Amino acid sequence: MTLTAQQNLARTLQVIMAPNQSTKTELINKYFSREDIPVMVDGTPMQKHELLRSETLDGAAILREDIVKAINEGSQPAIATLSDLYYVINTQSNKVKIPKGNKNSFGSYAAIAAEGNGVTVDNNRILYSEVDIIKAMSTVEVTREMIQDAEFDIIAREVAASGARIGNTMQSIALYELITNAAESSAETVTSAKTLKEAINMEIAKVQKNGYIPDRIVLSPKAGAWLRDELSPGYYAGNDAMTLSRVPTLYGVRCEVVPIAPATKSGTYTPGAGTFGSTNGIGAVVYARDKAVGVAIRDAIGTEQPFKDVYKDLTAITTTARFGAGAIHKLDTDNGDVNAAVYISY
Q1: 138: which of 102, 227, 276, 310 is 20 to 30 A away, CA to CA?
Q2: pTM for this structure?
């Protein structure tokens, strides 16, 4: 039986927090003695059941790997689509400059050079979009009572939930940047006389007119439901995409429903406090993935403190990520830049 990361973490916690050596040995034999589970210690793989039997090794060193795996498992629903929806880069700096090219991405041309002759490179009009790195943090509080009551499954669940919170925050901030900065503030409005798919078709044309190749459509949950209804008969058995509640490719452009609410920003971000769509909750953005929003990741989701006593009867597990998000191409009349995304609301 393949165990989830949460289940593995719960078992490790149960062994480490065993009340006595006899119980500890019994649990190791039950859960780990037959398992080939390598754990890296100072760059050397060792068997987990051997490490757990050690009376000198710090339990936190064994826990760290299981904690990180549980955090990553919890973050996956939000993180899995991040690089699919946005231009994601890795960085080591606190501020990232993403080159736009001369004017907008399709607004400049290469010079014609004679054979054997070079062309002087002119960087005077090269523009950059700046993305500031911020830090998201979520702390799981584990009381001694939880340990004494052997609530190890609950502890593991909370660790995974902390990863989910960080992943949701990253998606929420990226969606805010897409809606607020990369998309036009006024675009097609769905009415009784115009269907959502017709409005999306018009927005595809707008993105193309701006010189980009639209390859993504992000939808609010209500917009996704509306579109699935418009594309009926799609609810019957046999239509796999609809059976799985997914919106199929529309006009050759991939659709993705994002259930996470966008952030708001007033100096600092407030994740999940924004709205996607107007009062009816119908919102959609048609955009070019590599040109609309950049997400820079300095430190991926992980833990800084596997187990740390913060006061007498409390233990804390802290999950963090350092990242930033920002628009790449947006309306900038001074520099001739145009939007790589357009917004639909109803």
Answers
A1: 276
A2: 0.86
